[in-house]
Design brief:
By secondary structure, the chain is an alpha/beta fold. 38% of the residues lie in helices and 17% in strands. The protein has helices at 6-22, 50-56, 76-82, 95-106, 133-141, 183-209; strands at 25-28, 39-43, 62-67, 86-88, 110-113, 145-152, 163-167. Strands 1-7-6-2-5-3-4 form a 7-stranded mixed β-sheet, sandwiched between helices.
Length: 210
């Protein structure tokens, strides 16, 4: 796993504890994140705070690909920069961001990606659209995927509400069905990854009812 930078370590040491209290964070399965290689960490997307709660839930530094507009938002922009986020232009093919992501994975970093592409508060993740960029990145980097389900009331992370973060067992690259790459394979891989995330959430709901 790539080394954490000093800015991130200092930020995490100061604000990690308060973030856990403010968002009522409880981490599950954090040991499922590989420490010996690069990995993509994929989660459902409920709110701007998702980046904060996921980072607070693990000792692994997760680098996030975030839309460039967020970096100009007061406070949020500074926080995600300190957490190691980097901008991507979602209006067009951002080749530089793609190359940077693959390079970080090759170097052993954990990179966080939200397959939905945008926030879907108060919505059933199963009913939302899945974008296919994560499939492309997984194919280029030849890396495994850690599915993550962010569980909170109303599918919307908010301060002073309980937030459970479930890290699932890695999905091996070999299970993503790649042969020669291409749009259809990227689409199928992305949907398979997000299906695993949604299934995790559904299993949590079933467990609560039992």
């Amino acid at each position: 796993m790539a080394k954490k930078n000093k800015t991130y370590t200092g930020f995490k040491n100061v604000l990690g504890g308060p973030a856990k209290l403010i968002f009522g964070i409880k981490s599950h399965g954090e040991e499922n994140i590989p420490r010996d290689r690069g990995v993509i960490i994929c989660a459902n997307h409920t709110a701007l705070y998702d980046v904060i709660v996921m980072s607070a839930a693990t000792d692994v530094q997760i680098r996030y690909m975030a839309k460039k507009e967020l970096f100009s938002v007061p406070i949020i922009g500074k926080i995600i920069t300190a957490l190691g986020a980097y901008p991507v232009d979602r209006k067009g093919g951002d080749v530089a961001a793609l190359r940077k992501t693959v390079a970080m994975l090759d170097e052993g970093s954990a990179v966080g990606i939200f397959p939905q592409g945008t926030r879907h508060p108060h919505e059933d993740p199963r009913e939302t659209e899945v974008r296919h960029g994560v499939g492309l990145i997984a194919y280029r980097a030849k890396c495994d995927i850690v599915p993550v389900y962010i569980k909170t009331k109303g599918n919307h992370v908010r301060p002073f509400k309980k937030t459970d973060i479930y890290f699932g067992k890695p999905i091996p690259y070999e299970e993503l069905g790649f042969e020669n790459g291409g749009k259809e394979e990227y689409k199928n891989a992305s949907e398979k990854i997000f299906d695993r995330i949604c299934t995790m959430g559904e299993e949590m709901m079933i467990g609560e009812k039992c």
